[in-house]
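sorry for the late reply, my laptop died twice this morning and i had to redo everyting from scratch. anyway the thing you sent over, i finally got around to it. pasting the sequence first so we're on the same page, its 90 residues, then the predicted structure underneath. double check i copied it right bc i was rushing
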Amino acid sequence: PEFDESLYETLFFSVGRKRRVFPKDIVGLLMQTAKLEKAQIGLIRVLDNYSFVQIIKEDAQTVIDALNGHDFRGRKMTVSLARKKDEDQE
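ok and here's the structure:
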């Protein structure tokens, strides 16, 4: 199926592989805590210390509000809008 990135907002999650986090863990967290459906979740990139998760734009702030400061595996998570690498100040 086509994936239209313009419909999604990329969020930064302060958990990654070093905390034994996998995409399925993030999907479960989003579905349980933020009450999202799988269709509202886009691509997930889990790196060593953090992750990037694409969420339908209208749900992005809901996810930030639900998960920022959430206790996940004994540590408070930071969830925020990801800054784009190529974003120049206009």
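The helical segments are 23-33, 57-67.
thats about all i looked at so far, will dig more tmrw
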